[in-house]
Amino acid sequence: MAIAMKDLQDSALGDLRLHPTHKWIRAATHGDLVVVDSRRALLVWEPRRIVPCYAVPEPDVIGELVPSDGAGSVSRRVALPRDPDMPHGVLTPDDPFVRHSTPGTSLTIRTEAGDLPAAAFAPDDRDLAGWVLLDWDAFGQWYEEDEPVMGHPHDPFKRIDCLRSSRHVEVTHRGVVLADTRRATLLYETHLPTRYYIPREDVAMELLEPSDRHTVCAYKGQASYWSARIGDELLADIAWTYEAPLHDAVPVRGLVAFYAGKLGLTVDGVVAGERRPR
């Protein structure tokens, strides 16, 4: 009996998972002090985590690893948020690193520039003995080889493809056309809804106004948001643009994408839906 690849991957979501990487990994503090320098890193997903963290051998941490104050051994189960497609719950990048879902010990990294509280975690799992998991947000900058990376470690089992398309894409709200194009670039990202990036010439830019919101994607870069004002109604953060995307997303530079779940979006006359916005 055939199994969908997503179902196969999801079936291991409750396990502690690891995958070797041959990348040279470094992490620096906000003061540019290199604290992690490793050519032996692993990608590790704690149970229910949907994105990985880096784990390195203890000697590759440039500092003293000491138990976090009051932390002791972490052995409790965490209460996990519910997801309609993941009935057992998931932990997303919005859940802090200290919300561990596997037994182990929380560690502070003591450096010459100061302490990084609870920035490391030593799991009890014997396959990870001598390794520590690292909190991405505890550091000011991460590098894979000599390239700075943002958001979280890249998952080798996920990717994006950007393809130009002549499909007819229309975005509307209560009869008002926000975009109408046959020149969209379609962005396909593993396990996520297709996104339709539209040239500004085909967008009613007079209805959009810049938002203060910005988000970071590890694969696409930093997104700037737009709100739409239609009459007296303000649709906050309804669209976004990558002005300086990372290399995989260069084809969508400066193009505008809309939240299909909040607007009417049709592709060749068929309504396009999505599980949830991101």
User: Helix-strand pattern, N to C?
Assistant: HEEEEEEEEEEEEEEEEEEEEEEE
What is the name of the CATH topology of the largest domain? Answer: Metal Binding Protein, Guanine Nucleotide Exchange Factor, Chain A
* Rg for CA atoms: 21 Å
What's the CATH class of the largest domain, please? Mainly Beta
Strand composition percent: 35-45%
What is the number of strand segments? Answer: 23
Main sheet overview: 8 strands, antiparallel
Shape assignment: elongated
Low-pLDDT runs: 72-84, 274-278
Q: Please give the share of residues in helix.
A: under 10%
Give the CATH H-level superfamily of the largest domain: Domain of unknown function (DUF427)
Helix tally? 1
Distance between the termini: 33 Å
What structural class should be given to the helix and strand makeup?
A: mainly beta
CATH architecture of the largest domain: Beta Complex
**Overall tally of domains:** 2
On the 0-100 scale, what is the average pLDDT?
91
Domain DUF427: 169-260
InterPro entries: DUF427, DUF427_sf
Describe the structure.
With 278 residues, the chain is mainly β. The chain folds into 2 domains: 5-149, Metal Binding Protein, Guanine Nucleotide Exchange Factor, Chain A, CATH 2.170.150.40; 160-271, Beta Complex (Metal Binding Protein, Guanine Nucleotide Exchange Factor, Chain A), CATH 2.170.150.40. 2% of the residues lie in helices and 43% in strands. It has 1 helix and 23 strands. The chain has one helix spanning 5-10; strands at residues 17-20, 25-28, 34-38, 42-45, 53-57, 64-67, 73-74, 104-111, 114-123, 131-134, 141-144, 147-149, 160-164, 169-173, 176-181, 185-189, 195-197, 208-217, 221-230, 233-241, 256-258, 264-267, 270-271. Strand 18 (208-217) and strand 19 (221-230) form a beta hairpin. It is elongated and about 60 Å long. The protein starts with a helix and ends in a 7-residue tail after the last strand. Residues 72-84 and 274-278 have low confidence and may be disordered.
